[in-house]
């Protein structure tokens, strides 16, 4: 057969909704090329890494014009057939170009066409002698002592990459310990066949036991579980005991977490429990490290991966279980490019791989509560704190007409003094960084606005500048009003920087630490701060939502949310759900140990139903009443949405784009079109923004409509003048 009858259908990571045709290489039998392999293809003036989708005998392009691929990068596809179907499904569901979806599934290095080879990682394991030796006996060789101590606390086969991260210049010490037969080197595979866990499994309480049994019974099939339990109720312990059962079957586990809860402490906790090779994947690793982790899972070298959203597509040689912790967390939704929900795709992946999916949280998303009601997910409820910690008490503090000092009411200040006097710590939470969100002229009313956004500039006194939190623009902080040149500039509103200064005055002699994106940029700062807090060197911790998750502060007994009211009046219907989740998550930081915790919420709306339901009846009740409201308003999950966003530097272009589109669209009774309207932030980074919300009572109807809409959009001339994107199941309407 002549080779040009084989046409390779190829997906290329470019924002185009079609496949590209190429001819096979001359020196290879096209029949050996399997869908899913990576190829290098000529594209435009350069070349790209592409993915083989299929082989056909037809092409719409004249064969004389077809180009030949330049290289075949993989002998066999790196993804299984089921994972390839997952990507096809995701491209259809999110109406996103297949090439970009494929690309998102691979680590950066492989996307760039690097060979899919890995250095088999070596693990350091203590010998029996090494495990028993008292590190004191090595005190004359401090580095060796340190290394031995580290390996003894990890109690694990420790990969060289991890030693690099925790100990400088450790190799000579490792060599010395090896010479003394305290330490040996092993390959990953050998290590996987030894014992699974160290004997530190806790005795589960009855609720944990019930949850563990239910998941373990489902280990050989697909089912979705929602593990609901407040912080400290023992969810992580449930994960670990279920994981043990998966490991006993020789299978692998993928654990997905939000970036900020994937802490070194959590990783350590897993490494101390499990003797199997564990790997992590998150944004602080290098491309090479992430490729190693990805390929290591693909080859089956590792038994457990802890990763963030982007780890969702990591191939598993022996899939056994997918866990997604903090399932309600907005960071599981990608907000740009391929806008997928890692939670929703994880559920589909579980179904395709025929493995259970375990979703955990203290504050389930309304979608998941709804899915439990519909019988699609099974609820596992941990209603008590594990061990003997008491739940925190929540209190609404009415601040109407109260004297305030920089956002702190007098009774709050008194409560803080009492707590500090008992040698306990206070945590203050304010979700706004900078000094103040607005700068206004007392003389003429001028307000500092961003030149590129429909937004105010935020005052940052520490750095003497004004900064836009939407586009990052900066201006020097001027001594005088640029408009009237005489008026005094007055900061309006509260940010963490301002509260920090107030605390220094109100609580002289107390040590205050501020943790937000501005103070924790440098590597290691956050970790140091957390250590200092846990050692009791800090009295008052002040911070933004980075404090709401993952970290445990055993000596904090008073948690304060300085301001909750702004979350009560957002135009986005998701806002009340997010606020309730935030309040519960922040509360979870207090009273972890024997000391009971208290939570104070300052509000001017003490009778607001959201707050009273949440405080008096708990998150479960709040969720049910919020769902009832959604049903009445026909909002998701009782309807299905997609948001078409369009932006351009030319202020008229987005509306012209929508006009052209509306002319081309056939009216449809089943899909409502709300808009186009200016986006809630109508200009950002110099671009004018508009959006059109599409809503339907059923998912298939919405998707049929989108199937027709996408080619229409692609055909519009104006697509060259605007940037547009489609967001299926949007969680953020901004
Ligand atoms: P969560 O993940 O829900 O916040 P964890 O699993 O981290 O909860 O458990 C909270 C604390 O309680 C941890 O210190 C854990 O070691 C402890 N713990 C969990 N389960 C038990 C148990 N069955 N008995 C005693 N302590 C437990
Ligand atoms: Zn002025
Ligand atoms: Zn801006």
From TrEMBL:
Zn(2+) 1 binds at residues 441, 444, 481, 484. Zn(2+) 2 binds at residues 450, 453, 468, 471. It catalyses: ATP + H2O = ADP + phosphate + H(+); Couples ATP hydrolysis with the unwinding of duplex DNA by translocating in the 3'-5' direction. SUPFAM superfamilies: P-loop containing nucleoside triphosphate hydrolases. GO terms for biological process: DNA recombination; DNA replication initiation; DNA replication, synthesis of primer; double-strand break repair. Its EC number is 5.6.2.4. Binds 2 zinc ions per subunit. Residues 473-633 form the Helicase C-terminal domain. Its cofactor is Zn(2+). GO terms for cellular component: primosome complex. One of its GO terms (molecular function) is 3'-5' DNA helicase activity. InterPro entries: DEAD/DEAH_box_helicase_dom (IPR011545), Helicase_ATP-bd (IPR014001), Helicase_C-like (IPR001650), P-loop_NTPase (IPR027417), PriA (IPR005259), PriA_3primeBD (IPR041222), PriA_3primeBD_sf (IPR042115), PriA_C (IPR041236). Residues 216-382 form the Helicase ATP-binding domain. Keywords: ATP-binding, DNA replication, DNA-binding, Helicase, Hydrolase, Isomerase, Metal-binding, Nucleotide-binding, Primosome, Zinc. Gene3D superfamilies: P-loop containing nucleotide triphosphate hydrolases, PriA, 3(prime) DNA-binding domain. It is an enzyme of class 5 (isomerase). Belongs to the helicase family. PriA subfamily. Initiates the restart of stalled replication forks, which reloads the replicative helicase on sites other than the origin of replication. Recognizes and binds to abandoned replication forks and remodels them to uncover a helicase loading site. Promotes assembly of the primosome at these replication forks. This is Replication restart protein PriA. It comes from Methylotuvimicrobium alcaliphilum (strain DSM 19304 / NCIMB 14124 / VKM B-2133 / 20Z) (Methylomicrobium alcaliphilum). The gene is priA.
């Amino acid at each position: 057969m002549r080779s040009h009858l084989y046409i390779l259908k190829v997906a290329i990571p470019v924002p185009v909704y079609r496949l590209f045709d190429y001819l096979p290489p001359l020196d290879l039998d096209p029949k050996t090329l399997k869908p899913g392999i990576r190829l290098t293809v000529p594209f435009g003036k350069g070349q790209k890494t592409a993915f083989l989708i299929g082989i056909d005998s037809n092409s719409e392009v004249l064969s004389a014009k077809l180009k030949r691929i330049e290289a075949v990068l993989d002998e066999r596809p790196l993804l299984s057939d089921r994972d390839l179907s997952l990507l096809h499904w995701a491209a259809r569901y999110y109406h996103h170009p297949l090439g970009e979806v494929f690309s998102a599934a691979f680590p950066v290095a492989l996307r760039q066409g690097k060979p899919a080879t890995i250095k088999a990682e070596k693990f350091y394991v203590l010998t029996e002698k090494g495990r028993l030796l008292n590190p004191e006996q090595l005190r004359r060789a401090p580095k060796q002592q340190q290394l031995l101590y580290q390996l003894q606390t990890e109690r694990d086969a420790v990969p060289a990459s991890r030693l690099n991260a925790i100990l400088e210049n450790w190799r000579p010490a490792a060599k010395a310990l090896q010479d003394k037969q305290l330490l040996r080197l092993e390959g990953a595979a050998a290590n996987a066949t030894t014992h699974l866990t160290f004997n530190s499994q806790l005795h589960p309480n009855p609720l944990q036991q019930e949850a563990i049994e239910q998941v373990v019974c489902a280990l050989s099939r697909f089912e979705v579980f929602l593990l609901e339990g407040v912080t400290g109720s023992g969810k992580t312990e449930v994960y670990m005991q279920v994981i043990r059962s998966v490991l006993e079957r020789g299978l692998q586990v993928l654990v997905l977490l939000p970036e900020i809860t994937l802490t070194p402490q959590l990783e350590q906790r897993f490494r101390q429990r499990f003797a199997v090779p564990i790997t992590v994947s998150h944004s602080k690793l290098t491309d090479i490290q992430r490729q190693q982790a990805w390929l290591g899972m693909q080859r089956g070298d590792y038994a457990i991966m802890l990763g963030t959203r982007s780890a969702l597509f990591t191939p598993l040689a022996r899939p056994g279980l997918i866990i997604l912790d903090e399932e309600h967390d907005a960071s599981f939704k990608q907000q740009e490019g391929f806008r997928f929900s890692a939670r929703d795709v994880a559920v589909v992946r579980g179904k395709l791989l025929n493995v259970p999916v375990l979703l955990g949280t203290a504050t389930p998303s309304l979608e998941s509560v709804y899915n439990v009601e519909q019988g699609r997910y099974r609820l596992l409820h941990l209603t008590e704190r594990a061990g003997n910690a008491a739940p925190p008490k929540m209190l609404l503090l009415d601040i109407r007409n109260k004297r305030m000092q920089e956002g702190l009411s007098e009774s709050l200040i008194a409560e803080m003094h009492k707590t500090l006097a008992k040698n306990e710590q206070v945590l203050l939470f304010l979700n706004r960084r900078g000094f103040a969100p607005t700068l206004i002229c007392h003389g003429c009313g001028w307000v500092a606005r961003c030149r590129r956004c429909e937004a105010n500039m935020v005052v940052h006194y520490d750095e003497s500048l004004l900064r836009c939190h939407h586009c990052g623009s900066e201006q020097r902080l001027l001594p005088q009003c640029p408009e009237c040149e005489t008026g005094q500039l007055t900061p309006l509103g509260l940010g963490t920087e301002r509260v920090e200064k107030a605390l220094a005055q109100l609580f002289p002699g107390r040590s205050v630490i501020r943790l937000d994106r501005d103070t924790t940029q440098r590597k290691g700062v956050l970790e140091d701060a957390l250590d200092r807090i846990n050692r009791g060197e800090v009295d008052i911790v002040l911070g933004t939502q980075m404090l709401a998750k993952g970290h445990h502060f055993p000596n904090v007994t008073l948690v304060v949310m300085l301001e909750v009211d702004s979350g009560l009046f957002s135009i986005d219907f998701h806002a009340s759900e997010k606020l309730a989740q935030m309040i519960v998550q922040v509360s979870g930081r207090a009273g972890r140990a024997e000391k009971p915790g208290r939570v104070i919420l300052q509000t001017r709306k003490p009778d607001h139903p959201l707050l009273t339901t949440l405080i008096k009846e708990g998150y479960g009740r709040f969720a049910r009443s919020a769902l009832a409201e959604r049903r009445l308003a026909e909002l998701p999950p009782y309807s299905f949405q997609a948001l078409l966003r369009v932006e351009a530097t030319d202020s008229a272009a987005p509306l012209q784009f929508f006009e052209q589109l509306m002319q081309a669209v056939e009216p449809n009774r089943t899909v409502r079109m709300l808009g186009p309207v200016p986006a809630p932030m109508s200009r950002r980074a110099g671009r004018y923004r508009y959006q059109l919300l599409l809503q339907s009572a059923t998912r298939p109807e919405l998707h049929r409509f989108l199937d027709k809409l996408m080619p229409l959009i692609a055909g519009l001339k104006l697509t060259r003048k605007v940037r547009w994107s489609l967001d299926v199941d949007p969680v953020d309407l901004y």
